[in-house]
TrEMBL record:
Location of the Alpha/beta hydrolase fold-3 domain: 75-296
GO molecular-function term, one example from the UniProt record: hydrolase activity
Organism in which the protein naturally occurs: Cucumis melo
Protein's name in the database: Probable carboxylesterase 2
Pfam families registered for this protein in UniProt: Abhydrolase_3 (PF07859)
Annotated SUPFAM superfamilies: alpha/beta-Hydrolases
Gene that specifies this protein: LOC103487910
Signal peptide: none
Similarity-based family: Belongs to the 'GDXG' lipolytic enzyme family.
Top-rank taxon, per record: Eukaryota
Lineage: Eukaryota, Viridiplantae, Streptophyta, Embryophyta, Tracheophyta
Length: 326
């Protein structure tokens, strides 16, 4: 007797399932929270479409201002979700960006890049680059978005992201460092929260967690079928033949890792490689003990999450070292 259930063609648990009839089922964080004013933080948010041809949008976050002409750092933020799930509009990311915006006193632009498998890599990079260009288009105060025209200090531009979003932030910073990128961006810093980097050879904690390691072994080829190798420079920035980290186009980098995260040692390796690459900037690393991947999104009211948000706020508001201003 035949079952009425469609037959599964592929699944990457616990994230996504694809059926032979073409239907795609995302299994986590599919909720939608509308923008507005958050009663807990006073942060106001709204949604904008910056690539109307493809319907690609972002959610903007504005903290309470001490005066109407106040100018703040801008953080272009990229959510996680393994390039195939989640968005800025889920409760997890909406609430986190409210907390981060309030603590750091920044204008945040949380980008809803298109996702695999419908839109494989490099679409997420291309959408995210378009978002950064759109933000920078307000430099002369005549862009389409009033919050960016009135309240952003374009001498303090940052990229940040969680997991896959941290991967995007790194790869965009590499583009910014290319003198032929075609866009004049004064990128002060990049904050990487539990960055998704990987490789073909196990390191550190990866060997201790074979279930999660197998998930990441499969993931890159699923989201980037055109360049499926786990040592591709987009996913393994320290692989042999990858672009030199010395070309990273940012003056400061903050790498955040968690002790129990299977990705922890990739973050550490990136930090160490950056420091020895000849890159001209200043790198920092923060490790949270006894916590796992993206713990701060799952428990934003916990003390360790608040500590990490405070560290990010300090990073976004710290003055550049004098040697990097020359």
């Amino acid at each position: 007797m035949e079952s009425g259930e469609p037959e599964t063609a592929f699944e990457l648990l616990p994230l996504i399932r694809i059926y032979k009839n073409g239907r795609i089922e995302r299994l986590v964080d599919t909720d939608f929270v509308p923008p507005g004013t958050d009663p807990l933080t006073g942060v106001t948010s709204k949604d904008v479409t910056f690539l109307p041809t493809f319907g690609v949008s972002a959610r903007l976050f504005l903290p309470n201002l001490t005066h109407s002409t106040q100018r703040l750092p801008v953080v272009v933020y990229f959510h996680g979700g393994c390039f195939c799930t989640q968005s800025p509009f889920t409760a997890k990311y909406h609430n986190y960006l409210n907390a981060l915006t309030a603590e750091a006193k920044v204008v945040a632009v949380s980008v809803d890049y298109r996702k695999a498998p419908e839109h494989p890599i490099p679409t997420a990079y291309e959408d995210s680059w378009a978002a950064l260009q759109w933000v920078i288009s307000h430099l002369d105060g005549k862009g389409p978005e009033i919050w960016l025209n009135k309240h952003v200090d374009f001498k303090r531009v940052f990229l940040a992201g969680a997991s896959a979003g941290a991967n995007i932030a790194h790869n965009l910073a590499m583009v910014v460092g290319d003198p032929d990128c075609g866009v004049n961006i004064d990128l002060i810093g990049v904050a990487l929260e539990h960055p998704y980097f990987w490789g073909s050879v196990r390191i550190g904690k990866e060997a201790e967690n074979p279930v999660k390691a197998r998930l990441f072994d499969q993931l890159w080829g699923f989201i980037c079928p055109a360049r499926p190798e786990n040592d591709d420079p987009w996913v393994n920035p320290v692989a042999e033949g990858a672009g030199r980290l010395a070309g990273l186009g940012s003056g400061r980098v903050l790498v955040c890792v968690a002790e129990k995260d299977v990705l922890r040692d990739r973050g550490r390796l990136y930090f160490e490689a950056l420091g020895g690459s000849g890159w001209f900037g200043v790198a920092e690393i923060v490790e949270t003990e006894d916590e796992d991947h993206l713990f701060h999104l799952n428990d934003s009211e916990g003390q360790k999450a608040k500590d990490l948000i405070r560290d990010l706020g300090d990073f976004f508001n710290r003055d550049m070292p004098p040697s990097l201003l020359l």
